[in-house]
C-alpha cells in the first residue's frame, strides 16, 4: 500500500485538488495561499506547498497531505479517501481483504430484501402495530425510519430469502439467519420490532431488534459482518449529519427509540452507539462532522457511569463535551410522550463540562466533611488535563473545604492535595513524577 500511496502522490497535484474548493493565489516562493476552508478565515492564512505535497493553515493549525485533505473535506475514512484518489489518479489498488464488488452487491441485496420483509410483516402484525402506537410511533415515523417487524416464527425470513435465491450461507454472515445442527436455517430475529441501521453514507449495513414488551434480552443487534463494523457506525448518523455539520454539535443518546424521539422533537443532531459503550472510532466519526458533543444519557447510575466513559473517549478524539443527563426516571422517548418536544430539547441544552459533572456526582453522593470525599476529589482533579477547568473547580470547591473558612487558604490546601494525588499516581504507575 505504501507504493500505491506514493504513486497517487506522484500522479496528482495537491494544488489542483485544493483549488476545487479554495481559490488559491500564487505561487509565491513556491507556495500558494488562500482562505482556510476549516475556519472562518478573513485573511488568507491557508498555504499549499506542492513541492512537499502538504497544506497548512497558520491560523487554526489544520495541516496534512492529499489523503487527509480528502478525508476532512469529504468526511470519509482513510480507506475511502485512498479509493477516491486512486480512481482520480488511475492507480490500481492491491486486493482489499473483504467481499468483491459483486459479492458485496449480493449481500446488500439480501439486506434490502430483509428490510422490505420486515416492513411488510409490520403491516400484518396487529400486536406490533399496537406496540408502535403505544410508543407514539405514527405512520410517518415508521416510514421515515424504515421500522419493521420480525415475526415470531422460526424460519419466516429464511424461507423468504431462500425463495428469492439468496444463499443462506452468506445470509448467516449478515446475522440474518442461523444454521441448526441438521444444516437447516432459522431466523436470527424473531418477535421483535426491527430497526434498520445505515452507515453515515446511507448504506444499509445491519439491524437492531427490540422485543415487544419486557422480554429478555430487550435488544438483539447485528454482530460485525462483511458489511458492518459496529464500532464504526452510529445509529441515525445518515439522517443527522447535515444538522450536525450545520450546528457543529451532536447529541449522543443511548438507543434507537431515543434517537427517533429526539428527531421527532426537532433535535435532529441526535445519534446513538449500537448496543455497546461508545467506541473510539465512533467518537472519531463525530469529530469529522462537528466540534462539540452533548451526552444525553439516563440519570440512573449506569447512565452516569456510561456518560463519564463516553466523555473521556470524546475528549480523546478532540471534541468539546457537555453532559446533560435526562430528568430522573426519563429518557427522550418517555419524555417526548409525557411532556412534549420542548422538554426533550430543553434536556439537551447546556449541560456540564465533564469535570463539573464528576465533582457534582461526588457532592451528591458523599459528604464534604468526610476525608473520603476529599480523597476522591483529589484523585479526580489529579487526573484532569485542562488547567483552566482545574482552576475553576478548585475555586468552586474551596467553600466546601472543612478545615478553615478562608477561601484562599482552602484553595491552597486543595492544590496541595491534588499535587500529592498526582505524585501517588506517578508512584503507582512506577515512574518518577
Any chance you could write out the topology, listing elements then pairs?
Elements (H helix, E strand, L loop, with lengths): L1 H10 L2 H6 L5 E4 L2 E4 L11 E4 L4 E4 L5 E2 L1 H9 L3 H12 L11 H24 L1 H9 L4 H6 L3 E3 L5 H8 L4 H6 L3 E3 L5 E3 L4 E7 L5 E8 L7 E3 L15 H11 L1 E5 L2 H9 L5 E3 L7 H8 L4 E4 L5 H16 L3 E4 L8 H8 L1 H8 L5 H12 L5 H12 L4 H11 L9 H22 L5
Parallel strand pairs: 12-13, 12-14, 14-15
Antiparallel strand pairs: 1-2, 2-3, 3-4, 4-5, 6-9, 7-8, 9-10, 10-11
Can you describe what's shown?
The structure is a single chain. With 433 residues, this protein is α+β, with helices and mostly antiparallel strands. The chain has helices at 2-11, 14-19, 66-74, 78-89, 101-124, 126-134, 139-144, 156-163, 168-173, 237-247, 256-264, 280-287, 301-316, 332-339, 341-348, 354-365, 371-382, 387-397, 407-428, and strands at residues 25-28, 31-34, 46-49, 54-57, 63-64, 148-150, 177-179, 185-187, 192-198, 204-211, 219-221, 249-253, 270-272, 292-295, 320-323. The strands form four sheets. It has a five-stranded antiparallel beta sheet with strand order 1-2-3-4-5. A hairpin with a 5-residue loop joins β4 (54-57) and β5 (63-64). α1 packs across α4 (78-89) and α3 (66-74) crosses α4. The two termini are 41 Å apart. The model has no long low-confidence stretch (mean pLDDT 90).
Amino acid at each position: 500500500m505504501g507504493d500505491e500511496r506514493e504513486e497517487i502522490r506522484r500522479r496528482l497535484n495537491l494544488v489542483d485538488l485544493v483549488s476545487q474548493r479554495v481559490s488559491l493565489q500564487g505561487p509565491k516562493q513556491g507556495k500558494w495561499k488562500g482562505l482556510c476552508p476549516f475556519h472562518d478565515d478573513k485573511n488568507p492564512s491557508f498555504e499549499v506547498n506542492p513541492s512537499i505535497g502538504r497544506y497548512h493553515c497558520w491560523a487554526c493549525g489544520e495541516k496534512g497531505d492529499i489523503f487527509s485533505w480528502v478525508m476532512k473535506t469529504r468526511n470519509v475514512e482513510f480507506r475511502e479517501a485512498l479509493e477516491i484518489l486512486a480512481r482520480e489518479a488511475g492507480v490500481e489498488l492491491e486486493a482489499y481483504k473483504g467481499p468483491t464488488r459483486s459479492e458485496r452487491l449480493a449481500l446488500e441485496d439480501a439486506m434490502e430484501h430483509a428490510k422490505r420483509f420486515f416492513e411488510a410483516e409490520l403491516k400484518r402484525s396487529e400486536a406490533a402495530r399496537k406496540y408502535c402506537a403505544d410508543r407514539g410511533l405514527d405512520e410517518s415515523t415508521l416510514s421515515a425510519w424504515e421500522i419493521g417487524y420480525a415475526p415470531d416464527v422460526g424460519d419466516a425470513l429464511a424461507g423468504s430469502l431462500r425463495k428469492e435465491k439468496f444463499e443462506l450461507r452468506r445470509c448467516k454472515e449478515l446475522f440474518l439467519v442461523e444454521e441448526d445442527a441438521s444444516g437447516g436455517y432459522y431466523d436470527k430475529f424473531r418477535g421483535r420490532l426491527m430497526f434498520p441501521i445505515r452507515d453515515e453514507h446511507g448504506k444499509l449495513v445491519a439491524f437492531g431488534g427490540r422485543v415487544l414488551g419486557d422480554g429478555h434480552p430487550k435488544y438483539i443487534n447485528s454482530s460485525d459482518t462483511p458489511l458492518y463494523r459496529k464500532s464504526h457506525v452510529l445509529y441515525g448518523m445518515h439522517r443527522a449529519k447535515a444538522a450536525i455539520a450545520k450546528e457543529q454539535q451532536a447529541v449522543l443518546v443511548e438507543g434507537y427509540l431515543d434517537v427517533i424521539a429526539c428527531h421527532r422533537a426537532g433535535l435532529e443532531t441526535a445519534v446513538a452507539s449500537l448496543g455497546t459503550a461508545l467506541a473510539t472510532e465512533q467518537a472519531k466519526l463525530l469529530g469529522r462532522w462537528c466540534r462539540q458533543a452533548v451526552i444525553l444519557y439516563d440519570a440512573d447510575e449506569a447512565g452516569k457511569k456510561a456518560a463519564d466513559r463516553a466523555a473521556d473517549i470524546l475528549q480523546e478524539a478532540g471534541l468539546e463535551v457537555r453532559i446533560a443527563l435526562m430528568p430522573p426516571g426519563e429518557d427522550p422517548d418517555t419524555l417526548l410522550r409525557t411532556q412534549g418536544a420542548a422538554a426533550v430539547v430543553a434536556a439537551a441544552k447546556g449541560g456540564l463540562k465533564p469535570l463539573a459533572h464528576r465533582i457534582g456526582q461526588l457532592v451528591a453522593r458523599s459528604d464534604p466533611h468526610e476525608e473520603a470525599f476529599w480523597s476522591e476529589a483529589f484523585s479526580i482533579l489529579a487526573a484532569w488535563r485542562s488547567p483552566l477547568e482545574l482552576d475553576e473547580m478548585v475555586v468552586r470547591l474551596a467553600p466546601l473545604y472543612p478545615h478553615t473558612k478562608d477561601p484562599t487558604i482552602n484553595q491552597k490546601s486543595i492544590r496541595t492535595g491534588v499535587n500529592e494525588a498526582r505524585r501517588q499516581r506517578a508512584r503507582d504507575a512506577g515512574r518518577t513524577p
